[in-house]
Design goal:
- The complex is a heterodimer of chains A (438) and B (252).
- Chain A has 438 residues and is an alpha/beta fold.
- Chain A folds into two domains: 293 residues, UDP-N-acetylmuramoyl-L-alanine:D-glutamate ligase, CATH 3.40.1190; 132 residues, Mur ligase, C-terminal domain (Protein-Tyrosine Phosphatase, Chain A, Alpha-Beta Complex).
- In chain A, 32% of the residues lie in helices and 21% in strands.
- In chain A, a hairpin with a 4-residue loop joins strand 11 and strand 12.
- In chain A, helix 2 crosses helix 4 and helix 3 packs across helix 10.
- Chain A is globular.
- With 252 residues, chain B is an alpha/beta fold.
- Chain B has a single domain, classed as Class I glutamine amidotransferase (GATase) domain (Rossmann fold).
- Helix content of chain B is 25%, strand content 29%.
- Chain B has seven helices and 14 strands.
- Chain B is globular and about 50 Å long.
- Chain B has a six-stranded mixed sheet.
- The chains are: A alpha/beta (438), B alpha/beta (252).
- The interface between A and B is large, with 36 and 40 residues.
Chain lengths: 438, 252
Amino acid sequence: MSILSVLSAKASSALLSLAGRGGSMPGSIALKLDPDSLKKLKFRGPVILVTGTNGKTSTANMISSLFEAAGKTVVTNRKGDNLKAGITSALLKAAKLNGTIDADAVVLEVDELNIRHVLPVLPVSALVVTNFFRDQLDRAREMEQLIESIEGVLPPFEGTLILNGNDPNTLRLQLKAPKSPTVSFGLEENRYSSKDTTEASEGKFCPVCAHRLEYDYYQYSHIGKFHCPNCGFQTPELDVSLEDIDLDHQTFKYDGVRYKGPYEGMYSMYNYAAVLAVAKKFGLPAEAFRKMLANAPHPAGRNEKFRQGEREVILNLIKNPTGANEVMKVIEKDPRRKAVVIVLNDREQDGTDVSWIYDTRFEKFMNKQTQCVICSGLRYGDMALRMDYGGYTGELLMEPSVESAVAQALEKADTVYVAATYTALLPSRAAIEKEIAK
Amino acid sequence: MMPETVRCAWMYHDIMDLYGDKGNIMTLTARAERRGITFEAVPVGIGQEADLSEFDMVFMGGGADKEQMALIPDLLSRKKNIKKALDEHTFFLLICGGYQLFGQYYETADHNKIEGLGLLDFYTETGKGKTRCIGNIVIDADLDGKTLRLIGFENHGGQTLNVSSPLGKVVKGSGNAFDAGFEGYYDGRILGTYLHGPLLPKNGELADFVLSKAIAKRNPGFKLEDLAPLNNPYEKEARKALLDRFSLSELQ
């Protein structure tokens, strides 16, 4: 390891922290000074990468907390800085001058398109993949090319693949990694499983032979127990499988023990399963898992609740059809009279193509409990048009200002759901906090 | 004179549904219903028997490269029937992949040359170094002498060349290929375009134009003007957001 690049990253990181910045800048500088910075680091514990379309931040954070709950020290890029420069920053900041990372474990959330850059230059013990869905296709190109970019670096990989066995797009990775053992995770059939799906889905064809896949049941979107009648590619006997899912109480059973998780929705159950698969692979005790769940902080913009007297506002991030559909189900499930605010931006981080709103089932909450829908954000007109053509006949308002939208919604109903795209999340929270004390 | 139904064959609806293309069917359905017309979208999948010439219109969207491959043999097997449908004035609305497949061939991102229906002269090559035309796009389309300003989002690696009769002139964006200047294809019977967004919600008048072409199959002489105007306040705002961004305005 060149001492110069470690030193410069540490120095620039310190300077930038003083200046109130940080993030990926020190890593960018280190990579310029020495493009092989990452290759030269030394580790004394496992290196775990977490990627996938949805749930990688929650899952990576839970894995870090799991190791900590087991009494280990962890280095991680918790701020969600998941591109190569951000990862380099996080690691170099934690490196001693001789290039050794002083931690029992390294847990890194990695953007899907950056796996091909990061996996080959680190001694990765395990690659955890949550799922692959359509996500901001204008940036990430079609999902197929994204998966191929990961498959391209798998042939020499000797670490463990920890894969969602209910997602054909994810499970297929093991076919390209002959030297790598797989630990699969998933969910048993439960009361929410269905025989068919109406949601935007990618898993229609077998990734091996292109024959149409058959499903015993779907859990959500294209996630479920599948098999290819032609070549036999299928959900394997799962190494980690959750049973007796109860979404109302957010509980599940694993290994005969019932757990209660902090996060809502079927997708969160898969994140728990991924974390348990990591616990199994690295021999971490069930007690650490329980402790981690009990102490998990509620992530921003994931069913974040703001209450004052009778009034309650619930804030959710929406960024692609699959994640957004889960949010729609949560809104549908709430029997209270409510108003819904949708804040649609189309900046780079949101995805500049807003067509995904037509793949999202906003129809879910078009019922008599929904008093009013207010569309806001840079593309408020597009959102209102989507509701109109989707057949919404209730009160439909357009309000470019997020602050006014939230204020108006609270005049319409005591319960307000706010669904906001990435760059609209902070302005939405600020608008809610102005109206309501947390 | 006003028809009771419009029947649409929705080709490969579960494969060719990238980028919210189903929004086009939602729009046609709603705009027809608001005139008291029932819009019937009949899914036609792989291996499913259907005489396309019995439909007033055919819609085909775009799909992901790999999934799209699965339907090509089926599509090619329908070539004679598609010709018959065109001869008998069934109107074809084609987006992205659907548009490309009506040409001579298209080249995938990994340089496989895929045979198209060959009904039209154009062909599609892949962008150099896997580059793609991506972004908001505005075009002025010429539809049987009427000019409409269309707004959409394009996202295609394919460079469609040799287009004898484009849909319109590019005002902002790429079009059929990088710096093509022109976008899509239109010849009175087939409208092909790269515009997603989806295409029709933000272009209500185009949706009506498509409806009028479909209605004309069983009601010869039926024109866009025969449909009662339909002002949608949401459409106006959605268009304004993008036109303002590019310092453009509506055509007068």
